[in-house]
Amino acid sequence: MTDHQKASKIKLFFRKFYPTYTFDKVENIPYELLEELKIKLILLDMDNTLIDNKGNYSKDLKKWVKYIKSKGIKAYIISNSISETMVKKISKELGMRYYYKASKPRLKGYYHILNETKIDKESVLMIGDQLFTDICGGNRFGIKTVLVKPINKKEIIVSRVKRPFEKIILKHYYKKKGEQKS
Q: How far apart are CA 124 and CA 96, in angstroms?
């Protein structure tokens, strides 16, 4: 295999982890973009995307969720959490449905939610803070994706192990997009 072929294979591999869009946080995603994309359903990761490690979320997030819902967009938490307690609590407080034990990037949760909501993939957006679960899962499912920065700097060991690999992929992503990010 030539160096060019190896480089092409690496680029193809990385592409499945590339988000459609990036924003610092969920509440920075403009409604105008959602309107332009004709989004009817937003799937949201919970841990480190919506809430910090103590289960807190910002007032701005709550306002953002309320606003998009007032515009007719459904919001749905899709979490890899194996405990329903926190997912149920946050979904109730934010006024959205939820699916836990999703095992993203597996597709079972995505199919379940779309079967329940009867919304076409073209009108769905996945938002999360991790490339290997949230973004890869959304991309595999064939929906638009948004990567946000993790809320917490302190993370569980599994996430900390993955972050250096995410940085490598994001370096290629931003280079491809012609942006400079650290």
A: 15
Q: Taking the alpha carbons of 181, 152, 25, 116 in that order, is the dihedral positive or negative?
A: positive
Distance between terminal CA atoms of the chain? 32
Q: How far is CA 102 from CA 55, 108, 168, in A?
A: 19, 7, 26
CA distance 134 to 87: 16
Q: For the segment 37-50, what is each residue's pLDDT rounded down to a tens digit?
A: 999 999 999 999 99
Task: With beta carbons less than 8 A apart as the criterion, state whether 79 and 66 touch.
Answer: no
Eight-class DSSP state of 170: H
- Structure letter (DSSP) for residue 131: I
Q: Which amino acid is at 35?
A: E
Q: What are phi and psi of 90, to 5 degrees?
A: -65, -40
Q: What share of the chain has pLDDT > 90, as a percent?
A: 73
Q: Region 27-42: what's the mean pLDDT? A: 97
The mean pLDDT value for 160-167 works out to 74
- Among 64, 55, 59, 63, which residue's Cα sits nearest to residue 23? 64
d(CA 80, CA 134): 9
> What is the predicted pLDDT for the residue at 182?
40
d(C-alpha 47, C-alpha 140), whole Å? 21
Query: Which residues make beta-bridge pairs with 44?
Result: 77, 127
